[in-house]
Write a structure and sequence with these properties.
This protein is mainly alpha-helical. The protein is built from six helices and three strands; from the N terminus they run H-E-E-E-H-H-H-H-H. A three-stranded mixed sheet has the order 1-3-2. Strand 2 and strand 3 form a beta hairpin. The two termini are about 20 Å apart.
């Protein structure tokens, strides 16, 4: 996906186009889980729209990179890569410019952009803001 997707990016549509099955299930930890080898993403039910949009975009990136469960530095790298890729799909430079022009509050930016704080921070890092 290109970094020009922004609010036009529909994580559910993207998952469907990739042949991924998205199911809702109570999870012990986290909001989402990519299950390698099964083309399956599990999402915690009853998340806010912004959280679900962000989490699903993040889990799709795990699928695209064929990430496997790991620990330590490798896990941190996979999580960072998934957050940064999701951020580039979910936020465009134009949206960033617009939202930061009318507010100086990062909480308002996240709400307006319909992303989680983690995705907002990842965007700021990858865009070098």
């Amino acid at each position: 996906m290109s970094s020009t997707m922004g609010t036009k990016y529909d994580s559910h549509e993207h998952a469907e186009n990739l042949g991924l099955q998205v199911e809702y299930q109570r999870l012990n930890t986290g909001h989402g889980l990519y299950v390698p080898g099964r083309d399956l993403i599990l999402l915690r039910p009853r998340m806010t729209a912004a959280t679900e949009r962000s989490v699903l975009a993040h889990e799709i990136l795990h699928h695209l990179h064929d990430d496997r469960r790991t620990t330590g530095v490798w896990s941190l790298r996979q999580e960072r890569r998934a957050d940064e890729g999701a951020a580039l799909n979910l936020i465009t430079p134009e949206q960033w410019k617009d939202v930061t022009a009318w507010s100086k509050d990062p909480r308002e930016w996240a709400i307006e952009l319909r992303v989680t704080a983690e995705i907002l921070l990842a965007y700021m890092k990858v865009a070098r803001i």
